[in-house]
Design brief:
Glucose Permease (Domain IIA), 23% strand, ten-stranded antiparallel beta sheet, 3 domains, alpha+beta, two-stranded antiparallel ribbon
Length: 324
C-alpha cells in the first residue's frame, strides 16, 4: 500500500492529503516533457539539415568565397597577359624577324621550359585546391614564354644595331600619308577579279586610294631603277633598295625622279593618278624580294601603331573594292 503524502495548507492552517495518482503526475510533468520534445526536434533538424553554422564556420566560408573571387581575377589577368604576349609573338615572327632576314622561331623553342618534372608535388601533397594549382601552372608557362620572347628581342636588337643601313633601306612606311589616304583598295591576292579586264587575275600589290595629285613618298632609301610608262601600270617608278628589295609605284599622275637618282625614305617621287588600266585615282604599290612579289603590308611598321597595323591588314585582305 502506497504511503499517503500530506502538505501544510497555510490558508486553513491544516495538513491536507496530496493526490499522487498517475494522472496527476503526468499532468504536472507534461509541460517539461513538451519543452524537451521541442528542443530534441530542433537538435535533430540542425544535425539532419545543417542549418546552423558556428561563427568559426561562417568566417571560413567568407574566406573561401574571397579566395574564389581573387582566383577568378588572377585567371583573368593571366589570360590578358597571354593575349598580349601572343600579339608580341606574331609581330616578332611576321614583322621584326622578316625585317632582319631572320626565320621565325620554331614552336619547340617557343614552348621551351614549360614541361619537365612535376614542380607541383608539394602543392598536391598539401591538398591545395586544383584551381590554384592550375593557375600556378598557367603562370609558369606564361613566364617561360615571356623569357623566350625577351631573349628574342635582345637578339634582334643586337642584330638591328649591326644592320642600321639595312633597316634604313627597308620599305617600312606607307607611300601615301595617312591624312591623304582615303582607304585601302584591293590587297595582295593571288586570285582577284579584275574590274576592267573582267577576268580573274593575280593582284600582286596593294591599292592605296587618294585624290589625284596627292604626293607619293619613297618607302625607303634606295636608287631609282626605272621611270617609264606601262600599258597596264601607266606611269610608274621602281626603286632598288638593295638587299634584294625593290618597290614599285604605279598609275602615277606624274613622276618626279629620274633613273639613277638616290632617294631617301619619305622623299616625294611623284603624284597619285589614274593612268594605265585604272578605275580611279589610286597608287598601286608592290614590294619585290629577290624578284618575287610579296605582300607589302608585312613591311608597314614605321608609322603605324599596332592597332593601325591591324586595321590596314584587315582592309588589305578585303577584295570588295577594286581599282584595277
Amino acid at each position: 500500500m502506497a504511503k499517503e503524502k500530506y502538505v501544510f495548507d497555510p490558508d486553513t492552517l491544516m495538513y491536507v492529503r496530496v493526490d499522487t495518482g498517475f494522472k496527476q503526475v503526468i499532468k504536472r510533468l507534461f509541460p517539461y516533457m513538451l519543452a524537451g520534445g521541442v528542443v530534441g526536434l530542433m537538435a535533430f533538424a540542425v544535425l539532419a539539415f545543417g542549418s546552423y553554422t558556428t561563427p568559426k564556420e561562417k568566417l571560413q566560408a567568407q574566406l573561401i568565397n574571397k579566395l574564389k573571387v581573387n582566383q577568378k581575377v588572377l585567371n583573368e589577368r593571366i589570360n590578358e597577359a597571354s593575349s598580349t604576349l601572343q600579339h608580341l609573338v606574331a609581330l616578332d615572327d611576321s614583322l621584326y624577324r622578316t625585317m632582319l632576314g631572320e626565320n621565325a622561331l620554331s614552336r619547340s623553342i617557343r614552348q621551351a621550359g614549360t614541361g619537365g618534372t612535376n614542380k607541383y608535388e608539394n602543392l598536391e601533397r598539401n591538398n591545395t585546391p586544383e584551381g590554384i594549382i592550375k593557375s600556378f601552372k598557367e603562370l609558369d608557362k606564361l613566364v617561360a614564354k615571356m623569357n623566350v620572347q625577351e631573349n628574342s628581342y635582345e637578339e634582334l636588337f643586337k642584330k638591328s644595331m649591326a644592320n642600321m643601313d639595312r633597316l634604313q633601306h627597308l620599305p617600312a612606311i606607307i607611300p601615301v600619308a595617312n591624312w591623304d589616304l582615303k582607304r585601302i583598295g584591293s590587297g595582295f591576292n593571288p586570285r582577284r577579279f579584275h574590274p576592267i579586264l573582267n577576268r580573274w587575275r593575280p593582284h600582286k600589290g596593294i591599292d592605296l586610294v587618294a585624290n589625284t595629285g596627292t604626293d607619293i613618298y619613297a618607302s625607303a632609301d634606295g636608287r631609282v631603277k626605272s621611270v617609264r610608262y606601262s600599258d597596264s601600270f601607266g606611269k610608274m617608278v621602281k626603286i632598288d633598295h638593295g638587299y634584294g628589295l625593290v618597290s614599285l609605284y604605279a598609275h602615277m599622275n606624274s613622276q618626279k625622279v629620274k633613273v639613277g637618282d638616290h632617294v631617301k625614305r619619305g622623299q616625294v617621287i611623284g603624284e597619285v593618278g589614274s593612268t594605265g588600266l585604272s578605275a580611279g585615282p589610286h597608287l598601286h604599290y608592290e614590294i619585290h624580294l629577290h624578284g618575287v612579289e610579296v605582300d607589302p603590308v608585312k613591311y608597314f611598321f614605321k608609322d603605324l601603331s599596332p592597332q593601325e597595323y591591324k586595321a590596314v591588314v584587315a582592309q588589305a585582305q578585303s577584295i570588295d573594292f577594286c581599282m584595277e
